[in-house]
Design a protein that fits this description.
By secondary structure, this protein is of the alpha+beta class. Helices cover 14% and strands 32% of the residues. The longest helix is centred in the N-terminal third of the chain and has 24 residues, at 2-25. This is DOMON domain-containing protein.
């Protein structure tokens, strides 16, 4: 009986190990590319069932990449970018792969300067070896980028995305699901690892002062005269990131001591910006 229990436990352990091996093999390390392309590092990205393969040559400052992801639909597109300004989608220097009108796959460059329609344009990095291939419903885009000398760090913000449609040779807007909005992060190109996003700078402390206490009335009471009010002074043209103007504030409030404005998170602002630019 004891021997049977031991054999059963051993069998369970072997099955667990085999299952873990199969699971690991399903990650980016199992990807195979045409033309004998190989890369020094691969990372399974946390969103959109995607992965990044890359080799960074520090002497030449060149980065060879393969981005792998399934488009939302067979006629859709996939994109990978570096944002040298670290601001999410806006400012991304982007490679987008999609089917052209003749059915062939192509990779084109886009400088995403805003949240409206995009158009093909040169990007901040010299590019070469742009190509794409499709395998089992998954698109792979390839490219080589040369990082400018002005970039003094090899930890960069990467942004990746997938979309459903291409109209007249132009990739159309992607979904605004949670994983689409969170498909960004920082990668250390030299060490081949994902690194945490840097903490945002703390908002400056509000410079608030309490108004002077009202003078006692003739009766000696300190009760506030309801005809009195206090002015709220704000800098002119005060704006939030992404041209989100602060709603008009009431200029004169009764018994106002201090008004504080809390800066929303960058993700909240990005969602609002995306929604504001949605078109039916």
């Amino acid at each position: 009986m004891a021997a049977g229990s031991h054999n059963f436990a051993l069998l369970c352990a072997l099955l667990f190990a085999a299952s873990a091996s199969v699971s690991a093999a399903g990650g980016c390390s199992s990807d195979k590319f045409s033309s004998n392309r190989t890369f020094a590092h691969c990372l399974d990205l946390p969103q959109l069932n995607s992965s990044l393969h890359f080799t960074y040559d520090s002497a030449a400052r060149s980065l060879s990449i393969a981005f792998v992801a399934p488009p939302d639909k067979p006629e859709g597109w996939v994109a990978w970018a570096i944002n040298p300004t670290g601001g999410g989608m806006r400012g991304s220097q982007t490679l987008i792969g999609f089917h052209q009108a003749d059915g062939t796959l192509a990779v084109k460059t886009y400088n995403i300067s805003g949240y409206g329609p995009i158009s093909e344009a040169p990007i901040a990095f010299d590019t070469s070896d742009l190509a794409a291939e499709l395998s089992g419903g998954t698109m792979r885009i390839f490219g080589k980028l040369v990082l400018p000398k002005e970039m003094t760090t090899t930890t960069v913000e990467q942004v990746w995305q997938v979309g459903e449609t291409v109209a007249n040779g132009v990739p159309q807007k992607h979904r605004f699901d949670k994983e689409n909005l969170e498909s960004k992060g920082f990668v250390d190109l030299s060490n081949g690892v994902i690194v945490p996003s840097p903490a945002p700078a703390p908002a400056p402390a509000a410079n608030c002062t309490s108004p002077p206490a009202p003078a006692p009335s003739a009766s000696g009471s300190n009760k506030i005269n309801m005809t009195q009010s206090t002015s709220l002074a704000l800098p002119e043209n005060l704006m939030l990131e992404g041209d989100l103007r602060i709603p008009e504030l009431v200029n004169r409030w009764v018994d106002l001591e201090c008004s504080e404005m809390e800066t929303k998170s960058s993700l909240f602002l990005e969602i609002i910006i995306e929604i504001a630019h949605c078109r039916p």
